[in-house]
């Protein structure tokens, strides 16, 4: 099933890598955001099926953004993206309502599996 996806990451390179994996996997990347504040606005505007959310970002961290998005939409499907060694943050993100997490550097199969499970 094709999903409309919003990619949230402060690193343009990471957004580009994810977009490449997702579009090759048959999904539609409907938008990108560089921090949690922008992510909340774009989520309301674009109404994506799924959000990939980085944890560590300027302006507003990923876990805070997850909480804010879930306040507005309890059914929001969010998959966290974390670098190695952020396990504590991942646990917080799951408690905040994230459906799954993927670890950087991204592996195409794992990204697509997480998206499939979140749908």
Automatic annotation (TrEMBL):
Keywords: Phosphoprotein. The modification 4-aspartylphosphate is found at residue 54. The keyword Transmembrane does not apply. CDD domains: REC_CheY. Pfam families: Response_reg. The keyword Phosphoprotein applies. InterPro entries: CheY-like_superfamily, Sig_transdc_resp-reg_receiver, ST_Response_Regulator. Residues 4-119 form the Response regulatory domain. Signal peptide: none annotated. It comes from the Bacteria. PANTHER family: TWO-COMPONENT RESPONSE REGULATOR (PTHR43228), TWO-COMPONENT RESPONSE REGULATOR ARR22 (PTHR43228:SF1). This is Response regulator.
């Amino acid at each position: 099933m094709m999903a409309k996806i919003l990619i949230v990451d402060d690193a343009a390179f990471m957004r580009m890598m994810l977009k490449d994996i997702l579009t090759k996997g048959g999904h539609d990347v409907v938008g990108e955001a560089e921090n949690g504040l922008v992510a909340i606005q774009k989520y309301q505007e674009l109404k994506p099926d799924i959000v990939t959310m980085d944890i560590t970002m300027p302006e507003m961290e990923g876990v805070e953004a997850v909480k804010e998005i879930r306040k507005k939409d309890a059914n929001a499907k969010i998959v966290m993206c974390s670098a190695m060694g952020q396990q504590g943050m991942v646990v917080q993100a799951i408690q905040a309502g994230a459906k799954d997490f993927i670890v950087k550097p991204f592996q195409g199969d794992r990204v697509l599996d997480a998206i499939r499970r979140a749908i």
